[in-house]
Write a structure and sequence with these properties.
The chain has about 120 residues and is of the alpha+beta class. The protein is built from 5 helices and 5 strands; from the N terminus they run E-E-H-H-E-H-H-E-E-H.
Length: about 120
């Protein structure tokens, strides 16, 4: 969030934070990540089998790049994208912590239900 005062008025701009969770939230971006996990591709190669415009694909690529999920290099006249799969470790850590939390909650619920049943 960016806050400043302009002409005696408070002006607030929301700055969009890009992270790995935003990257994987969209099914098209998940498909792109999956394609790039097999090796580097240019934008035209990424677009094969995706029924959308090159501009739409470029928008998804831009978001993935901002999220740190891919790296882009210029090779001649084309941009080549490469997956940075290690960024998914953040998701795996979150899933593991969530699984542990919910396992504990379900175990507690199970104990409660067993005690209630015995009464």
């Amino acid at each position: 969030m960016v806050v400043f005062i302009f002409d005696n008025h408070l002006v607030v701009f929301m700055v969009e934070r890009r992270d790995v969770f935003q990257a994987i939230a969209d099914p098209t971006r998940r498909i792109i990540i999956q394609k790039l996990s097999r090796g580097p591709l240019n934008i035209a190669q990424i677009g094969v089998d995706l029924e959308m415009s090159r501009q739409a694909i470029a928008k998804h690529i831009k978001i993935l790049n901002e999220c740190g999920m891919i790296s882009m290099t210029q090779k001649g006249r084309e941009q080549v994208c490469e997956a940075r799969i290690e960024r998914l470790e953040e998701v795996m850590d979150w899933v593991a912590k969530s699984r542990e939390l919910w396992s504990q909650r379900f175990e507690k619920l199970d104990r409660f239900l067993n005690e209630t049943k015995k009464r």
